[in-house]
């Protein structure tokens, strides 16, 4: 029983960052209809920004997170402006392949710049975990959960309470009509991609110090993000949050009770099962953002 | 005209080992040829039914593992204390089994994944390939996991009355790959010009209309998936017996991407496309090797993929064919210059 409680606690910590990853991808996928293969690279990028700020610039650990969010935002906007905007109106396969090209080039760029040796980030948190009865959790992981929850809340408010968010939701429903009503659709696309990318970078910056940082770390993260989006339904933020926690639970239980070798297979199994049995996602009430 | 070109191309490819003595280049040509066969099988799905499968390497890898395990033998425990022991068989049987097994997998994957379309289809196929990779990595008793299956025997061709011919040298393997590639090419060509090929293209262009004129969507797509997977399995088997070592990295996503790039750059839906694109991208790393670090090569690889999609979205072969046809009919194609002069944007 105590083992199960420990799995639940781990699931909460992991699920928070998975939710961040999933929200970023579901916004891009839902609003722009782009299968964003660079999402994992943005996750890697965020983790390396964390490493640079803490170790190469010698600045504060807590400052690194906002820097990573900002850097992810800028890189995302740059990708959208240079690669996606010129291809507006092409079919989904073309943009998908262009994103694959960008992913290969950027991941190899990371390998070139930082090398293949995994890096770890020193954190200001004490080594000793917080012990609550039968379960223990490290302070770093608690901080990761709190920061992820905060970022999810900010994104939720941004989508549901601001003018930009309303324009994004309108574009998701019908971009032609939104355009006729005076929404600058190009600007919405760039903002959506930038926001989604900054969330991926934030997830990388948060999980990087928990594990280690290496150029290919984003590959699995991207697949997990796809699993979460498929679980939660396209463009569904609440679905992405729930999907993130379901995936984390499946991985924890799979690693704990089946075999740790198959931990990372859970995401794929979920993708295949959901698409076969309920292709609209588990929580699709209606097709909308929010 | 077309037949003459094909015969000329085959003759040119067959003459290569006569004047090319460099073993490194010959090796690059053999592995490129194997991947070109994989790309041709992917083109059957991508170019003629419009389904972008990004898990195609799964069938290639399954073919490689089935063929290697058939010829090496294995001894695994089953639930309930039973053991499944397989004595080594001749590699040529491994090649046949690889085709059958990969084709069967193609049937079941097709049956399940064609329920969804577009981006979802892509993601299901990626997931399938990754699950297979994780099984190959973790089922150590059967596959040796990351330690790899080593000493895979070379393919031996039985010769009537004489015994058998073991294909060990690069030269022999070059002609083996060329022969299998030619058979695959002719098979696909025959297929796409048949009634079945017209059904596939009808589906790609307008699924609703195709259904309304009586084309069985599931049957057509599944049959295409089976043939495509079987050819990819044959390529995987050639790979296993040529490289003679096989590990779970064969399932790496980048290998699927390589095949996709070969098809897209050469021209999807064109029979010669994957061959042209495959030769370019298979030999690009060889050309870049003296001047770039491996990371640089991959950056260039990604950059070239993006550039092709921007400049030649339909691929090299269809673009050239169009230009050639326009010149023969005496009309110049719609030149970008003329459009620019009239003030119309080239990309509408």
From TrEMBL, chain B:
Q: Which GO terms describe its cellular component?
A: plasma membrane
Sorted keywords for this record are: Cell membrane, Membrane, Transmembrane, Transmembrane helix
Topological type in the membrane: Multi-pass membrane protein
- Which positions, given as ranges, span the membrane? 24-46, 53-72, 92-112, 119-140, 174-192, 221-239, 245-264, 298-317
Keyword Transmembrane included in the entry's annotation: yes
Task: State if Methyltransferase is listed as a keyword.
Answer: no
Q: Which Pfam families match?
A: BPD_transp_2
The scientific name of the source species is: Bradyrhizobium hipponense
- Predominant localisation class: membrane
Give this protein's Gene Ontology molecular function annotations. Answer: branched-chain amino acid transmembrane transporter activity
Q: Give the protein name, as stated in the record.
A: Branched-chain amino acid ABC transporter permease
Q: InterPro entries, alphabetically?
A: ABC_transp_permease, LivM-like
**Location in or out of the cell:** Cell membrane
């Amino acid at each position: 029983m105590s083992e199960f409680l420990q799995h639940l606690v781990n699931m909460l910590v992991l699920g928070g960052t998975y939710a961040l990853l999933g929200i970023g991808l579901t916004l891009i996928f839902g609003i722009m209809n782009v299968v964003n293969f660079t999402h994992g690279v943005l996750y890697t990028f965020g983790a390396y920004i964390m490493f640079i700020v803490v170790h190469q610039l010698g600045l504060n650990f807590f400052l690194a997170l906002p820097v990573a969010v900002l850097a992810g935002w800028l890189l995302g906007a740059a990708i959208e402006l240079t690669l996606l905007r010129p291809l507006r109106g092409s079919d989904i396969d073309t943009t998908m392949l262009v994103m694959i090209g960008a992913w290969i080039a950027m991941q190899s760029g990371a390998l070139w710049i930082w090398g293949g040796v995994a890096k770890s980030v020193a954190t200001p948190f004490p080594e000793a975990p917080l012990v609550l009865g039968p379960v223990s959790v490290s302070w770093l992981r608690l901080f990761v959960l709190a920061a992820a929850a905060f970022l999810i809340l900010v994104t939720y408010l941004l989508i549901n309470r601001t003018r930009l968010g309303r324009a994004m939701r309108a574009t998701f429903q019908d971009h032609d009509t939104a355009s006729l009503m005076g929404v600058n659709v190009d600007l919405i696309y760039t903002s959506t991609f930038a926001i989604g990318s900054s969330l991926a970078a934030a997830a990388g910056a948060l999980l990087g110090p928990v594990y280690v940082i290496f150029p290919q770390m984003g590959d699995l993260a991207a697949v997990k993000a796809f699993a979460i989006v498929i679980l939660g339904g396209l463009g569904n933020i609440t679905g992405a949050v729930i999907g993130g926690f379901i995936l984390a639970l499946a991985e924890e239980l799979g690693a704990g009770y089946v075999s740790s070798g198959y931990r990372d297979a859970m995401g794929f199994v979920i993708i295949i099962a959901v698409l076969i049995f309920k292709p609209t996602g588990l929580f699709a009430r209606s097709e909308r953002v929010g | 005209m077309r037949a003459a070109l094909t015969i000329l191309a085959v003759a040119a490819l067959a003459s290569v080992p006569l004047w090319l003595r460099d073993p490194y280049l010959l090796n690059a040509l053999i592995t490129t040829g194997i991947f070109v066969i994989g790309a041709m099988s992917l083109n059957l799905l991508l170019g003629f039914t419009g389904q972008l499968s990004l898990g195609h390497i799964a069938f290639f890898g399954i073919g490689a593992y089935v063929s290697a395990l058939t010829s090496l033998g294995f001894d695994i425990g089953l639930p309930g204390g039973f053991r499944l022991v397989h004595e080594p068989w001749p590699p040529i049987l491994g090649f046949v089994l690889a085709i059958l097994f990969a084709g069967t997998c193609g049937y079941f994957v097709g049956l399940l994944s064609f329920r969804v379309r577009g981006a979802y289809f892509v993601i299901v196929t990626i997931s399938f390939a990754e699950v297979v990779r994780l099984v190959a990595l973790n089922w150590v008793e059967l596959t040796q996991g990351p330690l790899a299956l080593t000493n895979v025997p070379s393919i031996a061709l039985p010769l009537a009355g004489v015994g058998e011919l073991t294909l060990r040298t690069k030269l022999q393997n070059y002609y083996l790959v060329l022969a299998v590639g030619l058979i695959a090419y002719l098979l696909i060509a025959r297929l796409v010009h048949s009634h079945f090929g017209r059904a596939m293209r009808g589906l790609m262009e307008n699924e609703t209309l195709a259904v309304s004129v009586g084309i069985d969507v599931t049957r057509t797509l599944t049959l295409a998936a089976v043939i495509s997977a079987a050819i990819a399995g044959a390529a995987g088997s050639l790979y296993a017996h040529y490289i003679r070592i096989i590990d779970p990295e064969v399932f790496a996503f980048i290998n699927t991407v390589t095949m996709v790039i070969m098809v897209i750059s050469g021209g999807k839906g064109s029979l010669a496309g994957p061959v042209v694109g495959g030769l370019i991208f298979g030999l690009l790393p060889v050309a870049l090797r003296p001047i770039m670090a491996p990371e640089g090569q991959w950056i260039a690889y990604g950059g070239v993929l993006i550039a092709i999609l921007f400049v030649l979205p339909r691929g090299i072969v269809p673009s050239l064919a169009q230009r050639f046809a326009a010149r023969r009919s005496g009309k110049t194609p719609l030149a970008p210059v003329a459009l620019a002069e009239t003030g119309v944007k080239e990309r509408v």
